[in-house]
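Possible regression after last week's pipeline update?

I re-ran a chain I had predicted before the update to compare outputs. Posting the input and the new output here so someone can diff against the archived version. Not blocking, just want to make sure nothing changed silently.
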Amino acid sequence: MVASAVLALSAAGCGGKKASTGGDGGGDGKKSLKVGLAYDVGGRGDKSFNDAAYAGLQKVQSDLKLDVKDIEAKEGESDNDKIQRLQLLAQSGYNPVIAVGFVYATALGKVAPKFPNTKFAIIDDNSVQQANVSDLLFAEQEGSYLVGAAAAKKSKTGNIGFIGGVETPLIKKFEAGYVAGAKKVNPSVKIQIKYISQPPDFGGFKDPAKGKTIAQGMYDQGADVVYAAAGLSGTGSLQAATSQKKWFIGVDSDQYQTASADQKPYVLTSMLKRVDTAVFNFVKDVGDNKFQKGDQRFSLKNDGVDYSKSNPSALGDLSATLDDLKQQIVSGKITPPEK
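New output (post-update):
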């Protein structure tokens, strides 16, 4: 269920204090990092959450000259499988280790205390409070508020949709922000809300067929804009939007960039969740001996979330409205709800 990547990263140029490994002609030695990363449900290639993490690793590779190696996980794995993977990475000298997604919380809670000298990061969870764990958290409701406003403003029917992959507290944050943003610009807007699966079934993040069927149903019932916070399943929702010539809003990554030529005209915007920034900054901070334990929060204020402007012909003058709302959120005048 969870695809994993192990990245053997040997970096010179991480900056800061470096461990000496012999002469490199530069006066202070190179620091070697071996970084392990485990993807969330859907794995790499979901064009969404996991691919945002991968983009961060690509930046690590290009900017810090580090090598990347992927290891796939198996279908339907348990917490014990995750424990064994994180343990294996730590035992093999991978440090730091990044767990992409809250599904790793239980496993990390058991593994991190056993390896106090290994630095860990987990995305979307802060239940693991350990001296060697950094919790990378996002204000998803803020970015979702902006795309909700975009949806309601763009809609000609006054009817929009929200598709969540799995009904968890995390995805409810996306929903809450989206609904609030939509109602800000159109208090009478109708919002269709559906989730693909319920915990403990996390298959809703990797079921494009169901994502397509649900979006199709929303369009059939009058929606002309649908926001899919559903990982890989969102690719199916985009297919439905394209066939119906309706609007689609992507999530996490800029899904206009990975859409096919026939799909691009229907991608209104995407809610950007900068997992790439979080991954890169974490690795760089470890290399710079600037590791921080506990909550690290990414919001509109520090460019941790945003909305994409890759399709200006679709957004039109909406950008001015959204940028104004963005500034009101940053200044504290508007506080999007989390639930």
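Follow-up from reviewer: compared with the archived run. The longest helix spans residues 169-185. Marking as no regression found.
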